[in-house]
């Protein structure tokens, strides 16, 4: 009876390409990317602008983008200096790119969906390449009352996870969660203490708000 051999066991079988390697007769992904950048770098004038515009529009098809994000996407594909600037300027002129509107929309979405605020939002907006004035304006759209209400809802959503814990430990866990989302110590202390009071959490320990322990990073 003839013994069965799979491709790995057959010494005469061709080796399979590893990650990033080309199959026989086909360029690898890295080679295709290099060729694409070379072709784009060779484009001039209207042809370069039109090709870069297609790159930008494909980026915008998936989600809104900041000016810096689009410039980076175009540059990474090998287009000459200045092509990206021209394309993005044209898109700004017709309202398809608007950093201020982009920042405000991102703040609203992250605050509503994930409860992020303050420094957490600032850090994300900076990663998108937005300038300080644009960031400050967008983050300022969150009022103090809205921030407290959102912090309280976040704590209430997590309250069951600390039921039965010592009050000090429960405070640390909930305040640490709020700190990671960008809430300041005053808002966090108020939201957490009120939630724990409503929950009836406690085992006779003094609360951390009495001995000044804020729970950051705990």
Q: How many angstroms separate the termini?
A: 67 Å
Helix content: 55-70%
Number of helices: 11
Number of domains: 3
Low-confidence stretches: 1-13, 201-218
Give Rg in angstroms.
27 Å
What order do the helices and strands follow?
A: HHHHHHHHHHH
Strand content: under 5%
Q: Tell me how many strands there are.
A: 0
Structure class = mainly alpha
The backbone outline, from C-alpha atoms, is elongated
Mean pLDDT: 85
Biggest beta-sheet profile: none
Give a topology summary:
Layout: H1 29-42, H2 45-62, H3 67-75, H4 83-93, H5 99-114, H6 118-127, H7 132-139, H8 144-158, H9 167-180, H10 185-199, H11 208-211
Key terms for this structure?
218 residues; mainly alpha; Arc Repressor Mutant, subunit A; 11 helices; disordered N terminus; disordered C terminus
Describe the structure.
This protein has 218 residues and is mainly alpha-helical. The chain has three domains: 32-94; 98-142, Arc Repressor Mutant, subunit A (Orthogonal Bundle), CATH 1.10.10; 143-201. 61% of the residues lie in helices and 0% in strands. The protein has eleven helices and no strands. It has helices spanning 29-42, 45-62, 67-75, 83-93, 99-114, 118-127, 132-139, 144-158, 167-180, 185-199, 208-211. Helix 9 packs across helix 10 (185-199). The radius of gyration is 27 Å and the shape is elongated. The N and C termini lie far apart (67 Å). The relative contact order is 0.08. The model is unreliable at 1-13 and 201-218 (pLDDT under 50). Keywords: Cytoplasm. It is found in: Cytoplasm.
